[in-house]
LacI family transcriptional regulator (Gilliamella apicola), 668 residues
Amino acid sequence: MAKTVEQISSALNLSITTVRLVLNGQAERYRISQKTQKKIQDYVNKYGYTINHIARSLKLNKTETLGLIVPNLSNPFFSSLAESMELSCRSKGYRLMICCTHNDPEHEKKLLASLEERNVDGIFVVPVTEETQMYHIKTSNKPIVFLDRDFAQNDSSWVVSDNFESGYALTSSMFKLIQKPIVFFAGAPILPPVKERIAGFISAMVENGIDKKDCEVFYSQTDLVNDGELLMKEYIETHNDIPQNFIASSLPILEGIISFLRQHLGYIPDSLNIGAFDEHIMLNFLANNIWSMKQNDKDIAENAIAIMNNKILGEKSSDQIKIKTEIISRLKKK
Amino acid sequence: MAKTVEQISSALNLSITTVRLVLNGQAERYRISQKTQKKIQDYVNKYGYTINHIARSLKLNKTETLGLIVPNLSNPFFSSLAESMELSCRSKGYRLMICCTHNDPEHEKKLLASLEERNVDGIFVVPVTEETQMYHIKTSNKPIVFLDRDFAQNDSSWVVSDNFESGYALTSSMFKLIQKPIVFFAGAPILPPVKERIAGFISAMVENGIDKKDCEVFYSQTDLVNDGELLMKEYIETHNDIPQNFIASSLPILEGIISFLRQHLGYIPDSLNIGAFDEHIMLNFLANNIWSMKQNDKDIAENAIAIMNNKILGEKSSDQIKIKTEIISRLKKK
DNA sequence: TTGTAAGCGTTATCAT
DNA sequence: ATGATAACGCTTACAA
């Protein structure tokens, strides 16, 4: 199978050019005779022909492939982002190579290098640290669009959610119902989205008459399930009680918090009012009042690929786009 | 940046071969002078060098890249499978290209063709239908390892979970506690895993003295959230009641079931006993007794890549491996 | 110790 | 209407 053009042409006693012209649909333009066309078509129908994209890439110096580097796929936000990115890329005629860094900065650098070696046309990155982001900006010679977060605050291109607004809206919504202070469990406050969500949270609290020093924020190191557990543990140790109203800065953090409660108490009190960043249908599983801020990953993906396309086409735009989030509330029926 | 070997050699007035030898770590073998080596090293340190993997691939006819085709990434099982696959591949020196079919057979065929055009060294597929699986087997000229399901029942290579045993174990475990008939909500019974899980379920029920005709199985078309909702709707319409004890054939189906209950009743009765295929930490969110069968995606990934490696090395093994699953039970404290 | 040259399968340009 | 050929950057065998 998988004849090359060379094989086809020699089998049919035609020149490579002739075969290529009909294979590339330029038969009419060059007025290749019907007979020749048919001969070639028949042969291809019989034996098949799969173009060698590698050779094509070498010649044209483009691969029609883009790279996506995310921390992981177990965070549902990243997996749905990856899925949306893959869809958007394909609709623009690109393949997507998805890689995970597992939060390892060195790994992230190696992945970027490896994508460049493979000559992808452009790279999307959810950077793990400020340092890696700066490194990529400095060393890469491919178009880069950063996703989900921007540490750099320079003229690099990025598409992120409007996290301040998101934190503000979530907090306001919750406060309207519960009228009480809310605790914020923050995964990794080094991450700009977390920082901004906290800022939005505090801003909304203050606006609702809560003193800034009464806004409790618990910090952790990373955005993983384990840290959610530690955060809740820490709260319980310091307060000798569980928090009635809280917000989790990401789904993995929430997963950890709930897991810890389940272990600690044996159940999840359904009186808790819970706010969450990122939406997931499994939030339905909770019996509580629950508000979640859904990021619009389709929108993020489409904007990101549009920017990338511009860059590839040589327009040196350095676009920076904030995408609106949407609140989903699930309230108990009384 | 990104000098090519050609550029380096002409800049330093050395031959291409010389530069290449030191870049490929063969300097000692060919006794390149220290001075020359240093000159090259310094230059590369200063200007950088990223090998053109595309050109290399064209010459060597291998890309060190594998393809993975899954239905989607929103099903947490597939996203964690993809993550594990990516890890395993990388540990063996391969890149992984992840693509989603969104359950579209034609799409699946196109993706496979496109991976072949890109000359990947091998392809992992979670096939959507028997027809596509057969098609791949017949038309592909790359090594293929099927994952999660095998429709073909011939000598193709696959790695799947032991789904009969999985269904049997889950049902037995649940029955031990509840001693009552259990309802099975089946996503897409055309899928071999679902079929086998049902067979295991029935086998366990019968063994526990339940008459086979009292084993209720509700069927649907696909494995998506929407079908879970329809299944529960159908049950409620025919029984005028909700099922006390049930099993969902996949997480999306369970998500649909729970969502429907939440809409229909306004809450999830915590008396329900729930069995689920595939594990997810968010099952912690449910207040119910819940048993889940965890597939060992790391094991699946490692076996799959091992088989692939053999195939690539030319050993015509057609391995077929069933991976054990593990039960996770979360029982309410009394 | 260093250099030369063929070839991988395309594309693109120029001849016939 | 069809054919010949250079070039993309790499590997590899062989020559000097």
